[in-house]
Every structure is written in C-alpha cells, then in structure tokens.
Design a protein that fits this description.
The structure is a single chain. With 329 residues, the protein is an alpha/beta fold. The chain contains ten helices and twelve strands. The strands form two sheets. Strands 2-1-3-4-5-11 form a six-stranded parallel sheet, with helices on both faces. Strands 7-6-8-9-10-12 form a six-stranded mixed sheet, sandwiched between helices. Helix 7 packs across helix 8. The radius of gyration is 26 Å and the shape is elongated. The structure holds alpha-L-arabinofuranose. The site of alpha-L-arabinofuranose has 13 residues, from helix 2 and strand 9. The site of alpha-L-arabinofuranose (AHR) has 13 residues, from helix 2 and strand 9.
Length: 329
C-alpha cells in the first residue's frame, strides 16, 4: 500500500472516531440538559437496620424511575443533623422536602421555615407531634398501631392453641419518642388489655439496634430467667440481637420462649423458617413509589391524600412459611 493511501485510510478512521465521539458527546449533552421532573430533598434517619437500608434503596430507585433529582442526606441517627439537612434543602430551594423524623417532637421551627419558603413537606415512614396547622402535607408510612394489634392478636391465638394460663411478656421497644415505638406499644397493649392471662413484666428501650437488642435480652434473662414466656420486639434487628442471648442461657427461642418481631427482612424471615421466630408482622420499607407520585402531584399543585398506609401482612408459624417469597431487603 502506498504512503498516500495509508494517509487517506488514517484520516478516514480519525474522522469516524471523531464522529462517534461527537455523537456520544451530543447524546450525553442531551441527557445532561434534560430537566429533572422535580428536585426533592430527602433526610433519612440513618442506617440502623436492614429495613432502613432497604427504604433508602427503594427511594433512590424510585427517584431514578420517575426522573426526580434526589438530594439525599443521611442524618446518622441525629435529629440535629436532620434539622440542618432540612435547612440546607430550604436554602437550595428544592421543590419538595421529605424526611423520616427520628422522633416526634421538636420540628416546629424548621417546618415553619419551610412553610414560609413555600416548600411543601412530606413525612416518610414516621409522624411528628405538633399543635401547629399545615406544617406538613402528607404522611406516607405504615400503620404502626395496627402492627401492634396484629402482633397481639397472633399472641392471643398462640396462647389459646398452647392452652397457656399465664403469659409473661417482655417488650423490647424501638427508639423512645418515635412513632413506631409509641404506636406498636399502644396497639399491642390495647389488644391484650382484655385478656387476663397477659402480663407485660417489663418494657425496655432497645433503640431499634441489634447491639441494644442483645444487651436488653441479657438483662431481661438475668432478671426474669425462665419466667419469660414471650419476647415482643419492635423490630427484626433487635430480635436478631436477642436470639443468641436466649440460646446462651440454654433456652430454645420459638419453643421455650415465643418470639414476636416486626419488619420482615430476609434475615429474620430465614430465622422464622428455621422455627426460632414464631411471628413477624410486616412493615414494608417500599415507600419510594408513593413518595415520588405524591411529590410530583405537589409540584403540579394537585391535591394529595393526608395519610397513605401500605398494606401489610403477618408471617408466622400458623402458615406454610416455605411459600414466603424473597423479601428483597
Ligand atoms: O420506622 C420504621 C422502623 O425503623 C423499622 O421497624 C425499623 O426496623 C426501623 O429502624
């Protein structure tokens, strides 16, 4: 091949490469310039449980699916961090603010600031306590009271089937002053109130953490030993922390002690299938789709529902547990 032909081939090849690069550039430029459907600031509580990680992932996936630009902030279990994040969202002039309040009290000032800035606020997962009107637009989250009711109803059926006459219950509760802690406790207590066999011998704060679940269980076993008939734990993480402590004390969870948990993450479902947990009331972390649809409606000035509760179920030794589908978190 002559030198001229080689040069011509080279120039053609370069031309093709440049054209491809240009086309790629245009394509990505087009994508970059595509306006997001809305800008959503979301303050997540932290990473305390498999549930929480699943919830964050679900919200990220939903944002991508709905073309929503998500400013996600992890508060590492601190209310101060959540308040600071909300103030950053206001300064950034996001279209909508969403957050999962770690506790119920103490939000009035920052939410007044959001209201004055004209930014609608959506509560995700947990509620707040306030006497002020119109600080938030919508709550998307589980009916925690009903979860407590379903846990207690299971226990009453179980006590009937075993013919128990006295039932000593220890309760390992979630973060003090959080909505799931308050309502899971109230729903359970109200439902067993009419049943004279049932006695809550102690309720102790496990903060929704696995390590605290283990500590609480150690203390409860030291204090009450084999007088404990039931552990009612407000989430899977604390339950999974408590089980090895029960086994170390020479007791068999699921047989010597009835174990009732809430959430339904894969690790706990696997233990339910082994028979070491008797009942898990579902609390779904999959709130992303509802969040995106509600935020988009708010941006478009449409009406939204005040409360959106997902449908939830109970997994227990009353069913064929082999039929439970993979949980995805
Ligand atoms: O608010 C929902 C609760 O918070 C879940 O039950 C728990 O696992 C999480 O940390």
């Amino acid at each position: 091949m002559g030198t001229d032909m080689k040069r011509t081939k080279c120039v053609k090849l370069l031309g093709i490469i440049m054209a491809i690069l240009l086309m790629a550039g245009c394509a990505s430029g087009a994508e970059d310039s595509k306006e997001p459907a809305l800008l959503l600031g979301f303050s997540q509580i932290g990473t305390e449980s498999a549930w929480r990680l699943g919830n964050t992932r679900d919200i990220q996936n939903a944002a991508e699916k709905y073309g929503v630009s998500l400013m996600l902030e992890n508060a590492n279990q601190s209310q101060e961090n959540q308040i600071a994040a909300i103030r950053r969202f206001i300064a950034y002039k996001v279209d909508v603010i969403a957050f999962s309040p770690i506790v119920e009290d103490g939000w009035d000032n920052v939410l007044m600031e959001a209201k004055e800035a004209g930014i609608p606020v959506i509560l995700v997962d947990r509620d707040i306590e306030t006497v002020k009107e119109g600080l938030t637009t919508c709550l998307i989250g589980a009916d925690f009271y009903n979860e407590g009711v379903m846990a207690a109803q299971y226990l009453i059926r179980k006590a009937d089937s075993l013919g128990l006459e006295e039932v000593n219950i220890v309760e390992i509760s979630g973060t003090v002053n959080s909505t799931p802690m308050r309502q899971r406790q109230a729903g359970f207590a109200d439902t067993i109130a009419g049943d004279e066999r049932m006695h809550i011998i102690e309720s102790i704060d496990g903060d929704f953490l696995k390590s605290r679940g283990a500590e609480c269980m150690r203390y409860l076993l030291e204090t009450y030993g084999d007088d404990i008939d039931v552990v009612y734990s407000h989430n899977d993480e604390m339950t999974l922390g408590a089980l090895p402590e029960i086994e170390s004390a020479g007791l068999v969870p699921g047989k010597d002690i009835i174990i009732i948990s809430i959430d339904g993450g894969q690790d706990a479902i696997d233990v339910l299938k082994e028979g070491r947990i008797n009942c898990i009331v579902e609390c779904t972390p999959n709130l992303g789709r509802e969040l995106m649809e509600t935020a988009l409606k708010l941006k478009n000035g449409e009406e939204v529902s005040e409360v959106i509760h997902p449908t939830e179920q109970v997994f227990s030794d009353e069913m064929d547990v082999s039929t439970i589908e993979p949980r995805g978190y």
